[in-house]
Write a structure and sequence with these properties.
The protein is of the alpha+beta class and 154 residues long. The protein contains 2 helices and 7 strands, in the order βαββαββββ. The protein is globular, with a radius of gyration of 16 Å.
């Protein structure tokens, strides 16, 4: 089942131009495949001094994971949980920046582990049939009292 940008935005906490994914191509219980051209937008919010560093590809992977979690929650009839990215491991980049990539980015993520309030995914980003980034990302869901926003004493 394909999803467009509007449907994606309803599943993740990112809004406006920070919702980086344009469509979900396919998904199942463990995998998701997304596509986007948002890296070509001069107003892309992760750009710095007109450049979009390859490091931003971790966020593309993380957003695919968040959409996957939202789809799984929706399918199970439960509330979507907002997660916090806590670790990126074994990340490799085949490009330094995303300028000059005229093709769509294909973002693939695979859930490796779900345990209580945490998830481990691996991801890869492909452009023009070449892997340009890959890695593993750990995400946790904050619990009451843990990682809660700091309240100032009054």
């Amino acid at each position: 089942m394909a999803l467009n940008k509007v449907a994606i935005a309803s599943l993740i906490p990112h809004a406006g131009t920070m919702c980086l994914l344009d469509e979900v191509v396919t998904w199942d219980n463990t995998h998701i495949h997304c596509r986007t051209r948002s890296h070509q937008d001069p107003a892309q919010p992760l750009r710095r001094h007109g450049r979009l560093p390859a490091l931003a590809l971790i966020e593309y992977g993380a957003q695919a994971m968040a959409v996957h979690g939202g789809l799984l929650a929706h399918a199970a009839g439960i509330a979507t949980v907002t997660g916090l990215l806590v670790s990126a491991r074994n990340v490799c980049f085949e490009v330094g920046t995303l300028e000059g990539i005229d093709a769509a980015l294909e973002i693939h993520a695979k859930r490796l582990l779900e345990s209580g309030g945490g998830w481990l995914y691996e991801f890869q980003v492909i452009a023009l049939q070449q892997k340009i980034a890959a890695g593993r990302v750990a995400v946790i869901a904050p619990r009451d009292g843990i990682l809660a926003p700091h309240e100032s004493a009054q």
